[in-house]
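S.,

As promised, the alpha-D-glucopyranose run. Input:
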Amino acid sequence: MNQFRRYPAGLARFVVTITLIVTMFVGLLLGNSHRSPSQAQGATPVTLLIAAQELPYWRPIIADFEAQNPDIKITAIEGPTATNLVEDLYTAAFLLGDSPYDLVYMDIVWVPKFAAAGWLRPLNDRITPTELEAFLPADVAGGTYRNQLYRLPIRSDAGMLYYRKDLLDQAGIKPPETVAELLAAAQKLQKSGKVKWGYVWQGRQYEGAAAMFVEILRGFGGSWVDPATLTVGLDRPESLRALQFLIGTIKQGIAPPGVTTYQEEETRRLFQNGDALFMRNWPYAWPLANAPDSKVAGKIALKPMVYAANYGSGACQGGWGWGIARSSRHPDAAWRVAEFFASPASQKRLSLATGYLPSRRSLYSDPDIIQKYPYFASMLDVLDGAVLRPPIAQYAQASDILQRYLSAALTERLTPEAAMAAATAETRQLFEN
Ligand code: GLC
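Predicted complex:
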């Protein structure tokens, strides 16, 4: 069982992180050497890092900010695509000391760790409770650690079930509520040759699999870690049934064997190419799957995740926001940037370009947004019942453990029982340290 313990994955992550850091610093140096004369003449620099797939959508917002605020110059560094790799970069930079970042673009799951480590500045004296009321409560809660706000939310997120409305309609099948209905619909349409694969989801060993798994856990009445008591529920029968459902989709040929290597983008590409009936993904996939180059444009819909009979649907609560690095030498300039990014106008612009869910409640009834994404109207309800990944300071390690054993079970290197027993034991040990 040793091969599933921390070191091989940890070592690989370490090597990747070091490589990324070197690349990043080289990028930063190159960036500096191309600075404009106005910047050299005293504009306050604000440096930030955004994942590669997101950065293009931020460029126009950054350009607007700079046009309106010539006294601040933003340097945006392109990060890796997977959230855990971006987190590793930040972690390494903060541990090394003199981090280059003023602003920290944070996934909801990093906040407790970054705040507990003292890497962030509290934001409470910069924004009033009344101003915060304009944001969705779960997004604010996800940016709060021990009653201090550390992250200004800019986008919310919730895992959804995408489906081929055209194919289900033709077959006279209602969109599935339960996992049994999903499996039956998939088998029927695969058998009739209408579609190659039934259901695609994120099975690679990375954070996205943990996010996907909490939804299935909720749908089967299982549990991961109770943040209040640190009780671990991965080895409970309900949790095992959740895992067995996922394994079953592979064994029955409903999910492709490659699903154990898929991140969000691999699933989107398959779905967009017309090769899958159902897909689990975040709202970002909607505009892409409906773009003119998509084979399924206009043929799809999305709905809350399926669940086992007698249980309920759960969307994983995701989301991103801006914090200020403790080490920043320009926290006031950084805050002006964060405020601009979180403004209604910037969030609207980002949402219209990407399909990201805004963190401001008012935008869910914005006519332009609703016209482009009619389903946003029902997203507030989905977000209300969303499932959190445990908001604990040890989240990164707990997730790493789950990812390793989940992957071991999905690829049949361990039985589900052995995998979940080991994951439970290792997670308990983590909390004892
Ligand atoms: C999305 C979510 C984030 C999650 C990630 C996993 O970016 O917003 O919370 O951790 O996907 O891949």
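The longest strand covers residues 44-51. The pocket of alpha-D-glucopyranose is lined by residues 83, 107-109, 157, 207-208, 211, 264, 282, 318-320 (CB under 6 Å).

- D.
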